[in-house]
Amino acid sequence: MLVFGFWTTKICNTRNCFNKIVLIALFSLTFHCNGFASIVCPDLKKILTKFDSPSRWFMLGKKCKVPAGARERLKEAIAISEAMSEHAQKQAARYDLLLPEDAGFLEGDEDEDTNTISQADIADAVDITSGSKYFNLHLSQFGPYRLDYSRTGRNLLVGGKKGHVACIDWQTKDLKCEMNVMETVNDVKWLHTEAMFAVAQKRWLYIYDSKGVELHCVKKFNDVLRMQFLPYHFLLATASATGFLQYLDVSIGKEVAAICTKMGRLDVMAQNPHNAVIHLGHPNGTVSLWSPNQKESLVKMLCHRGAVRSLVGKDKIGDTALYMVTSGLDRKLKVYDIRAFKPLHSCFLPAGASCLSLSQRGLLSAATGEIVQVYQNVLGSNPVSKPYMAHRLRGQIWGLAYCPFEDVLGIGHGEGFTSMIVPGAGEPNFDALDTNPYRSHKQRQEWEVKALLEKVQPELIGLDPGQLSKVDQASFEQRHKEQVEALGFDPLAKDKFKPKTKKKGRSSAGAIEKRKRKVAHEDQRDEIRQSVQERTEREKELKEKSNEKKLGNKSTLDRFRK
Amino acid sequence: MAPDEEELSINEQAISASEDEEGSDDERKHKKLLEAIGSMGGRKRKKQNERSEASVQVSEYFVNAEGTGDKVNLSDLLGTVEKTSGASNKTKKQLRNLQSSKETLELPLNKQQTEKIQRGIAYEKTTAEVSCWKNIILQNQKAEQMVFPLNQESSGPKRVEQVVAGWKVQTPLEQEIFRLLHGSRQPVNDPVLTPVEEQSLKAMSLEEAKIRRAELQKARALQSYYEAKAKREKKIKSKKYHKVQNKAKRKDFLKQFDEMVKTNPEGALEELKKMELSRMEERMSLKHQNSGKWAKSKAIMAKYDDSARKAMQEQLQMNKDLTQKMVVPSDDEHESIEEGLETVPDFVNDPETVIDPVNPWMRGQLTHEEPEVSCVTAEEVQTAEEENEEEEIIGEFERKRKLRQADEEDLIPTEEEQPASEVVEEDVVEVSDKEEEDEDEEEDVSEFNTLFRLMRSEKTREGSNQTRGGLNTAGEEDEEGLLSEGQIRVRSIEDLEVLDEVVEPRAIEEPSAPQTAAAEATSEPPHKKKREINLKEVLTKEAKAVRLPFLPTVVDEEERDEQISIIKEAFAGDDVISDFIKDKSRQEAAGRPAVVDLTLPGWGEWGGVGLKPPRWKRKRFRIKTAPPPPRQDQKLPDVIISEKRTASVASHQVSQLPFPFQNTAQFESSIRTPIGSTWNTQTVVKNMTKPKVVTKLGAIIEPMVKEDFIKSKTTAAGGKGAAIMLGENRRAKEGTKRSAEKHRGRRSQKRKK
Hints:
- The complex is a heterodimer.
- In chain A, about 20% of the residues lie in helices and about 30% in strands.
- By secondary structure, chain A is α+β, with helices and mostly antiparallel strands.
- Chain A folds into 2 domains: about 1-100, no CATH class; about 115-450, 7 Propeller (Methylamine Dehydrogenase, Chain H).
- The model of chain A is unreliable at about 1-55 (pLDDT under 50).
- By secondary structure, chain B is mainly alpha-helical.
- In chain B, the strands form 2 sheets. Chain B has a two-stranded parallel sheet.
- In chain B, α14 crosses α21 (about 500-510) and α17 packs across α18.
- Chain B is extended and about 160 Å long.
- Mean pLDDT of chain B is about 65; it is low at about 1-20, about 330-385, about 410-445, about 460-555 and about 715-753.
- Chains A and B meet through α2, β17, β21, α6 and α8 of A and α10, α18, α19, α22 and α23 of B.
- β17 of chain A pairs antiparallel with β4 (about 640) of chain B.
- Chain A: It is found in: Nucleus, Nucleolus.
């Protein structure tokens, strides 16, 4: 049960819209057919991040303080870099104006629950174009369907268990190709463009073009059950029934890594779009994190008591938290902060979720039996209470995916495919130079060349995506040691304090010693001072908290209450 | 040729000697003749210098040696100076002094020394000359970007002032216009006020100043009146007067307030806040509590003195008045909102009607495992009489604690939150057979749980332990609530009914019963628990009755079988935890450095089977390496983080600290901002990646001349004045620039040649 969180690392969404109450009248939904900003000024749209206000700028790393006795050159270098980064941040904040689109959510009447509103009602109430986004494809013959949307959200790829594969421009309902591979289809996935897709068939992995012509049969990749495509690395990661996790570089057609996980059948897979780490769910309730550079798992965490059924990763850089949502056989749904590897909250779904999917705006959809539930505000710290929307289908749900930049949730099930309208799901502002839903053929070609030029090497995949901007400590230390040995002194060492010679008997040994002591361990002193202050503050807080706890939220003034 | 000339000169000399006496006419003629001859020869003759020596006979060709014998003394010369009237006294005096001094001049220094001195002076001069380049060189080194050739005319749009300044009157029409403009004293260069306007402005300001002054005077007078009045009133000692005054004031205020409520609700609110504040202050202080010195004395007197009693009564009344709570109109709204929250429905996660006796997890109710516990009680709690119940609760707790202790002795302590343990406590009979099988497993589990609890709750306990002392009972109850939670765990409606009585009081006392794993509960901040309470309020019993478009599917027979198998699988996963613990401990052990044993048995002692090397030897030859830094997952019991270093990135990383940086943190922070266009706006990217040196295509880059930077300095200094003294300044500067350009142009021409 693989879920795919379509979310680019490039557009970072800091706007915490989940907590905003967007008051809109019932059925007055906002649908985001917005090419506006990008059409007007496509290159202006390229920004690092969107900001709510200048105070919430996306601070990149820590600001460096100029040390007290720094050289002139060092001071200048630091000052220049600081000024530059500040300038960059400010500019990015100013460009936030160019992202005018905002998402709205469904709101019921006072006594009405949004989850009781049926799809047909929504489709009737909204405009024709938006209404046409709710549709069903009755494909009962070739049994439960997996699906995948292309990165721009225009094209839909469906693959039936019994071999039926079709790709559709779902907005115009234009069938691009349709075929039956005459084999079991385990998973389907678009590659970097709409021109190619991968199909995991019974034995091998096949790659077809958009016309349905078989391009490759990759026999190195056998018994593939689930696939993930890492768009910025051009890597197709596959998880097989034999327990192998393999990476295929689709730009050069080479197998980058093949890792034997020794964890048995791998049928739960997701990617962390923040750092391109692959998450695998296992029958023993653990979730393991993998990169192609390490033969053993980066992290292994025990998430469920039963087997992990589905997984989904999501990044939300503005709040400096990355999330993973898991559901297991113990019928729990857990939300993890994947930076701290700590669970944020968990809840119990009576039917248990077999499929999960996260939208760009953070709506979580879970397939419980024949019902798809959509939850709002899942990625906050407070647990979910009730679904935001729900939709019943016929037949087992096999695949769930949100369409990028659209308020649409695609559902693949036993009876075919259903496109469901979920207001507020899609990111209304898109990066036209990265994923432009309205791009022309020529633009796509240009983008492909640029993307290939900017391809990220697989060696850079790791838990910390900012690893590259750090000094390689181990070799740095080694080199420094050698340098010290060769020179006979430490060039980076701080100069020893030499007291000035003073006249009139003030340079006596005792006086000098006193002066020396004044400046001794100055750097350490600062640290100690800071840590002591922090500790006292922490203690104070704890004390207050415990006091509150004991008194049960009573203030000191409560004793005077009459 | 030389002998010829000599001959000629001798002849001429002879001639001149003879003819000198005859007259100058002949001489001139002779000269002319000679010149004519010389010109005829075609060769230029050597020009003779004029002679200035004083002699009787002046020759054209050589210095007369006549009178060389007698030297000319200074005194000879000075004699004439003394006589001449034109020379100043000062010079005369100086000359006299010179005459009188007998000192001889010093010997000139020898060559080496003079050269040394000259070198020194030359060095100083050149250093001074070169050092004026120092600044500009430093500046250029620092500069983020250098544009060559220097001193380029900016190609972009110019400022209006620049354009205007450079422009000259050409056509007669323009001339006429300018004449008119100058005639009317209009500003030509800069749009500042005309003199006329300035004058009028000045006049205006005076008037204004007068008005202002008058106003100020008036205000001051009023203030002084008011102050005097206040002083007078303050001096009045009559209490009655003040009372009346205060009462009037209060009445007035109330009236105002009533009005304010209608007209200015915000202001009224503020006033209300003020009142609230005063109420708070009153409640904090002991001012009207009859506990002061005065009050005590009065209390003694009160028995006999009626007025004292009255005064005391008044004080109390005052206190009552002040501490009376304001009625806030928004209260009922609040309640209605709360009610609304309570009735918010929850539908899909309602429990399935089928209850699987085998599976405790199947009885999971709503999104949260526990909210039902309180949700049922939520309404009842409100209706119940709290005071009576509190005692009951305490009794209940005592009983439960005892029960719990007994249970713990009997059973193996299991996880608080895990369903398996809940089963054990709810209906022991059902699971008892199973338990026997899984006993050792459960030991592991319990071990794990204790581990969890210990690790995750360490911090919170530390805090709470410190302050426990005084409020011991409350703390105990809290803990007890957490521990005994399993007992009253409710899984289904039936259970609820049975446990109704038990649940009811519990919910009051212990609202924050975390239903997720203990580990999660303890790791979460305490304020989170409060939110859970809200959640419980949301998930009321009423919620279940909400009409739904559809209910969750009822489990079929086949599916049921499937589910049973799944459950079995899930239960088999119980040793998942122990497996995980084992895995983790294995990893930890692998990370620990091994002790290197270099002892050689039999060296320096008796050897043989069964003999151990002595202690000193073991101590000496067993080498322990330093323990590695603490593992990243040290405090995360359910996570294993690999400690292996990934070498793949290392080849792309910087391994040497570049020059000005002293430590890695500085360098890392300096490169933390990405410069790519993916992360930045276009302008920023351009700015960040601009080249260090820019040259104009085809332009000759001359070496820097001194005038370049000196001039730039002067312009920089005069930059401020430019806006005001626009015309002249600019023109002057341009003149210099033009001349410099000419200069350069000439040089470049030369080079071309």
